[in-house]
Amino acid sequence: MTIPGRLVLLGHPLGHSLSPLFQNAALVAAGIPLKYELLDVPRSVLDETLVSLKRTNTAGNVTIPHKEAVRAACDRLTDTARVVGAVNTFWSAVDGAMVGDNTDVGGFQAAIKSLIGAPRENEVVALLGAGGSAAAVLHAIEGWPGVRVRLYSRTHDRAEELAQRFKVPAEVVRSAESATEGATLVINATPVGLRDDTVPVSVHSLPKGSVVLDLAYKVGETAFVRDARARGLHAMDGLTMLLEQGALSFERWFGRAPDRDVMWSAIKSR
Predict the structure, then answer these.
(1) Model confidence pLDDT, tens digit, residues 84-99
(2) What is the pLDDT of residues 158-213, one digit of tens each?
């Protein structure tokens, strides 16, 4: 690994992102003279952008909708990125190769620990979405004892393909409401609610006593989290996952852990 010449977040659109806030705070605290920048890149110019970034020894993160495309463009992948099939973290190796990793898995594990502690036996997971974030969730829960998944995506074929890739019993269903039937843990792994107050499924369809983890996040929490709490359910948004995946990315780029307290302070002061 070489020290990056530049740090960016690739995605489209990017107006909602809090990553520069806590990553720049971590860089200052570590005495690293770099600035973490947003790089809003439409899919039509992603390939040429990646060539340019590789040339300038750029490292960074990847968010919606580019995680799978960047995976395909990387010269090398970590085992986690290969299994998940999506890259959210990349950097240049000493030989100039672009290396892709997936720290969403570790970010999700941190979020679950904060939400419910250790994984519970015989968890019934309603997983909404079939993109890179959903793949990271499925990989993270492969070792949970007795876990079962009910998976829903608007793109049914994509959900079917995703369900076959992981060692988790997963049933693909035809509606979000069907996914939540009997669920003990409901996970929104779609962008729904990230930019407005829409919800991926009505909280009235959620079983009493179920726990909600919304991987989306926004200032003041998402409507899905607010609605779930109003119904008396234990719920959390994606801020913990966001910060932890970013902290793990920092470790990949610089070979040392960032100050997580500084990162949290930056988010809380926004």
Answers:
(1) 999 999 999 999 999 9
(2) 999 999 999 999 999 999 999 999 999 999 999 999 889 999 999 999 999 999 99
Closest Cα partner for 67 from 45, 43, 38, 98? 43
Number of H helices, E strands in the chain: 11, 12
C-alpha 136 chain-centroid distance: 7
Q: Which residues fall within 8 angstroms of residue 29, CB to CB, at 6 or more apart?
A: 258, 259, 262
What domains lie within the chain, and their CATH numbers? 6-102+241-268 (3.40.50.10860), 105-237 (3.40.50.720)
Q: Tokens representing 41?
A: 């890149």
> Which H helix or E strand runs over 55?
helix 46-55
Residues identified as active-site: 67
Longest dimension (CA), the chain: 54
Sign of CA dihedral 122, 123, 128, 132: negative
| Separation CA 126–CA 23 (nearest Å) | 31
Strands (E), the chain: 6-11, 36-40, 58-62, 76-77, 89-92, 98-101, 124-128, 148-152, 170-172, 185-188, 211-214, 234-236
3-class state of residue 59 by DSSP: strand
Strand order through the sheet with 185-188: 170-172, 148-152, 124-128, 185-188, 211-214, 234-236
127 beta partners = 151, 187
